[in-house]
Amino acid sequence: MSVLARPADRIHLEWRNRVIAEYTSAAITARVLHLTVICGLDRPLQDTALRIVRDELDHAALSDEARLALGDTDEPLGLEVGRLDPPRGSDGPLAELVDHVCTSFCFGETLAVPLFAAMRARADHPAIQPVLTRVLADEAVHRGFGWDALDALLALDPDGVRARAATTLPTALQSYRAAYHDIGDGSPLTAEELSAGLLPHGAYREVFRETVLKTIVPRLGSRGIALDHGLHDAA
Ligand SMILES: [Fe+2]
Ligand SMILES: [Fe+2]
């Protein structure tokens, strides 16, 4: 591989991963929509879940167009059925819905808002900025859905949902921590990579810490859910 080829490769790899992540979010949210119907959550929450499925399919398509505009091959990307349709366990639909809401929304979508804001602040490529602007606007709605859905679930079964969240959230924390925080410094990004929407490892780490400490932990605490995050020790 030539040295000159490396930055372009990293840009293409990043956008391939984003296409797959957005399409996976569509699949997970379609299951969340199904579970909101099964569990009988209020109609406005079901309508928002339906909207989010459409948003995530749009994000996947827009991200695919972005990666082509950045010069990547138009070969189809591989998808793993296991990630699109994770095992459902044997604890029933309410427990499964709590798991998805805690992991994909109270963590995933809540982290997505400041992450996409940080990407958009640096990205000035004309094919990329409009994509990040659309995604950022939608992610704020997705974040709101997660916390509203958690409130609805707590109203259904306060003790059961708190107990389930208490077992699910530490795993979610560790998984996002491994992806966004415990990642070393990485090699510096070029101006071309920043323009294409890539984010330095330090920015991922800072957004993760700030969001967990200032948004996720306080929001959980106000709902009577404690989360031992361990982030002060890791600073
Ligand atoms: Fe998305
Ligand atoms: Fe989203």
Structure description:
This protein has 9 helices and no strands. It is mostly helical and 235 residues long. It has one domain (5-234): Ferritin, core subunit, four-helix bundle (Ferritin, Up-down Bundle). 34% of the residues are buried. The chain binds fe (ii) ion (2 copies).
**Count of extended strands:** 0
**Rough outline:** globular
Which series of helices and strands comes N to C?
Answer: HHHHHHHHH
Overall CATH class: Mainly Alpha
The fourth-level CATH homologous superfamily is Ferritin, core subunit, four-helix bundle
CATH architecture field: Up-down Bundle
Mean pLDDT: 93
Q: What about the largest sheet?
A: none
Low-confidence stretches: 1-5
For the record, the count of structural domains works out to 1
